[in-house]
Design goal:
Layout (H helix, E strand, L loop, with lengths): L15 H14 L6 H14 L6 H10 L1 E7 L5 E7 L4
Antiparallel strand pairs: 1-2
Helix pairs in contact: 1-2
Length: 89
C-alpha cells in the first residue's frame, strides 16, 4: 500500500519582492503597463480597501481578478492608461 505524501509550505513570511512580481504579472496579463511602483501602489490600495469581513489574500485575489486596463485618448489627443477595479455586486 503506497504511503501518502503531503507537501506543506515552509513557515516563512512572504517577501515583498515576491508579492510585487505577482502583482506586476497579473496587471500585465490584463494589458496594463506596469512596473515596480505601480505594483507598490496597487498593493497599498488593496491593503487600504480590504473589508474586515474578508481575508487579505481573498481581497487581493478579488482585486486582481477584477482589474481592468483601458487605453483612451484625451481631447488633445494625448494617450493615457487608466487602471481600475470594477465593483460587481
Amino acid at each position: 500500500m503506497p504511503i501518502p505524501v503531503y507537501l506543506t509550505y515552509p513557515d516563512t513570511r512572504l517577501q515583498l519582492d515576491s508579492v510585487v512580481k505577482v502583482v506586476v504579472d497579473d496587471l500585465e496579463k490584463v494589458g496594463s503597463p506596469c512596473g515596480y511602483y505601480v505594483a507598490i501602489v496597487t498593493i497599498a490600495l488593496m491593503v487600504e480597501t480590504r473589508p474586515t469581513s474578508m481575508s487579505a489574500v481573498e481581497h487581493a485575489n478579488w482585486c486582481l481578478s477584477n482589474t481592468q486596463a483601458t487605453h483612451h485618448s484625451d481631447r488633445l489627443g494625448a494617450h493615457a492608461w487608466q487602471v481600475g477595479v470594477c465593483r460587481c455586486e
